[in-house]
Amino acid sequence: MSTFDYAPALESTAIVSIAERYGLFINGKFVAPKSGKYFPTINPATEKVLAKIASANSADVDLAVAAARAAYVKVWSKMPAAERGKYLFRIARIIQERSREFAVLESLDNGKPIRESRDTDIPLAAAHFFYHAGWADKLQYSGNGASPKPLGVVGQIIPWNFPMLMLAWKVAPALATGNTVVLKPAETTSLTALLFAEVCQQAGLPEGVVNIITGAGGTGALLVNHPGIDKVAFTGSTEVGKLIATSIAGSKKSATLELGGKAANIIYDDAAIDEAVEGIVNGIFFNQGHVCCAGSRLLVQENVHEEVLAKLKVRMGHIRLGNPLDKNTDIGAINSAAQLAKIKELSAAGDSEGAERWSAPCELPSQGFWFPPTIFTGVSQTHRIAREEIFGPVLSLLTFRTPQEAVEKANNTPYGLSAGIWTDKGSKILWTASKLRAGVIWANTFNKFDPASPFGGYKESGWGREGGRHGLSAYLKASN
Amino acid sequence: MAGNDSSRIDVQKTYKLFIGGAFPRSESGRTYQLKDSKGNHLANPCLASRKDLRDAVVVARGALAGWSGATAYNRGQILYRMAEILEGRTSQLVTEICALEGVTARAATLQVQESIDLLVWYAGWSDKISALAGSTNPVSGPFYNFSIPEPIGVVAIFAAAKPSLLNFVGAIASVITSGNTAIVIAAEKFPLPAITFAECMATSDLPGGVVNVLTGFSSELVPWVASHMDIDAIDASGLTPKALKEVQIAGVQNLKRIKVHTSVKAEQRILDFMEIKTVWHPIGI
User: Fold this and answer.
1) Main-chain dihedrals φ then ψ at residue A474, nearest 5 degrees
2) Which of A18, A350, B158, B237 is most exposed, with the fewest beta carbons within 10 Å of its own?
3) Angle CA A454–A455–A457, to nearest 5
4) Among candidates A139, A231, A136, A217, which has minimal Cα distance to A182?
């Protein structure tokens, strides 16, 4: 039987207009940075410069925090909650209206497939604003006492893997609960945050309620250590999360930390194997594996591991890697040269520690940063690739014989963000879910997200939850 | 402590640690001199060491699976049983509280009664907190999604000082009612009610190791508690701001959840030592 030739289906970039240079968004306006410094942001699929981004220094951070404080004191904390909520509804609607623009811009700046930015990141970002909008005037029912109060000014630092979605996870609950915000996007993916600033303007959001400052880790540290903020909300690596926790020790600042993970994806022998294989692929190859909750440790019951591996390799062979703007693309570009180097380094450690590497045969583009979907077999618990977060399309396969052993291996990590369970037996799902020390458990599915569903980790995967009723407490002073 | 009949030599109690359901002395062999509120010698309680702490963490971790796996109903009954036993120990605790806190017998009695009632209050929470703090979440898709609170694991408690029994009992009850196990460092100047309450726990069907009590100098134990990688969370209510900061910095190593409470009776105290777990499952045929 003949097959159709592959034909690319490219998403047009005409909908997006990118400025040559971006200032900081402070007090409702784009302003030139006091630092006078800019740095380039590139398209990781082509390595071409997309725009110049302002690098905020301490004077810029001062201005942003002062704007947020003034907005908090004068406007946002005084506004009736229902009116506050209406601004969030407006923002949700404008994101929906401009969703394709956001999706294309996200794929250009981040390297993720347009299928994912279009169908996951941006719709979920809008949904987060819509969901939290409705909470604004119902906080007395949120389990935080009869009259919970906002914390004040929140410093928020977000990662590069889901730039716009993480912005929504941070900004929507903070605003709904009556706080004002200074947000710092990741230095490699600032563009959708800056487009979001335009959304705030279109929504008529009062000046200073949302401030967006761009820059690298140094700017983030200035924000965390600024005496004018009441809370830090951070998503990123466990390493940086620990630095933040250390620097706020002894202060009145509280923190929400969404950090790393090394999730186990457990495949029992009575699972629907074909569905499980799809779940494994989604679990580790979604968003190039740049996912803190990725199912990066595949735990397969020994008696089915050959079948699972054979089917997985066939399936991995059908993954299409390439231009993020091609609607057929499954795996886009690795976000940065630095991240690619880290993935290569850890994979090399897998080789040298004795695991066996297999990568799907696929051609890597000559420009940009790419890594093929890869699986390691013969992995032991002590291998670095079984312990450390790779944050790339690299899967480590381990086996187990009994459910007890599966749970023991799954929990044998300092992380505890997420886990997967695949079996057709309901009681086994619930038994396993109750034993796993992780904040999000996907049973017979993986990598599902929703604003109504609390997300966050046990152990060294962080502090607090985002989303759902539980996520609100991170931004409220409870009243008793 | 003096008895009522001055012609009789009373039998004084040796106050020891409470670890794994037993009452050992400190492995270090050390004690410290405890004086009453008037400066008279009262007892030589144990001066717990780093190794005592480590022993306590081992048994607390070991007791976790059984205690967190017990039914909430069972845990509630055991906390209630602790209240029953405490009721019968009232006069002894009143004597100890009067001596240490320098309060009247009436005030001490009220404190013991309040402690008993607080235990009953927390006993009742064991099988209700999940309904209060859990939820089913209406996600946009064919999935059943629910969130439940789970005990966080091994919790170290630096018990606040006066009212010493009330603070001690409240801290323990709020931590263990959900299924956590605990290592409690009694307030330095008020170890006697703590150890006497440990005797109540030891006779309340509370499994050994669920609560472990250390007496001594919290300043000595702070660095070891803060940096212990098998302690998941700390109730730091009894620490000074300086010690709290020290604990927060050292606790970063394994991102301990470190909480401070001012109210002894609050459901938030229970929730502060629980984690929310969310489970997804597809709906389909």
Assistant:
1) -65, -15
2) A18
3) 130
4) A231
pLDDT for position A5: 81
Per-chain mean pLDDT for chain B? 96
Q: For position B112, which CATH number holds?
A: 3.40.605.10
Q: Left (φ > 0), alpha (ψ -120 to 50) or beta: where does A103 sit?
A: alpha
Query: Number of structural domains, chain B?
Result: 1
Neighbours of B22 (CB within 10 A): 13
Q: Which CATH superfamily is domain A264-443 in?
A: Aldehyde Dehydrogenase; Chain A, domain 2 (3.40.309.10)
- Chain A residues with at least one Cβ partner in B under 8 Å: 127, 143, 238, 241-242, 245-246, 249-250, 257, 259, 414, 429, 433-434, 438-445, 448, 450, 452-456, 458-460, 462-463, 465, 468-470, 478, 480
In angstroms, rounded to a whole number, what is the distance separating the alpha carbons of residues A191 and A105? 7
Is B2's pLDDT higher than 60?
A: no
Q: What positions of A carry a catalytic annotation?
A: 258, 292
**pLDDT value at residue B108:** 98
The rounded distance, in Å, linking the Cα atoms of A430 and A121 is: 30
Range of the domain at B99: 34-282
Burial degree of B203 (CB within 10 A; 0-12, 13-18, 19+): middle
Q: What is the ipTM of this complex?
A: 0.96
Q: Is residue B13 part of a domain?
A: no
- pLDDT at residue B239 greater than cutoff 60: yes
Query: Mind giving me the DSSP string for A135-195?
Result: HTT-GGGTTS-SS-EE-SEEEEE--SSSHHHHHHHHHHHHHHTT-EEEEE--TT--HHHHH
CA distance B114 to B91: 14
pLDDT along chain A (480 residues), means of 10: 82 97 98 98 98 98 98 97 98 98 98 98 98 98 95 98 98 98 98 98 98 98 98 97 97 97 98 98 97 97 98 97 97 98 98 98 96 98 97 98 98 98 98 98 98 98 98 92
| Bridge partners of residue A153, in order along the sequence | A180
Q: What is the pLDDT of residue A434?
A: 97
Among A127, A249, A452, the residue with its CB nearest the CB of B248 is A249
pLDDT given for residue A479 in this prediction: 85
| B263 found inside a domain | yes
Tell me the domain boundaries of chain A: 21-259+459-477, 264-443
Distance, CA of B119 to CA of B174 (rounded, Å): 9
Q: Is the Cβ–Cβ distance between B31 and B44 less than 8 Å?
A: yes
Q: What is the pLDDT of residues B250-281, one digit of tens each?
A: 999 999 999 999 999 999 999 999 999 999 99
CATH class of A21-259+459-477: alpha beta
pLDDT for A4 equals 79
- Residue B24 in any domain: the answer is no
Q: Which two tokens stand for residue A365?
A: 């583009």
Stretch B105-128: mean pLDDT: 98
Q: In whole angstroms, what is the distance from residue A42 CA to residue B268 CA?
A: 46
Inter-chain residue contact A480 with B279, CB threshold 8 Å = no
Is B4 within a domain?
Answer: no
Q: Which amino acid is at A241?
A: G
Residue in A441, A375, A379 with CA at minimum distance from that of residue A407: A441
- Torsion A290-A292-A296-A300 (CA) sign: negative
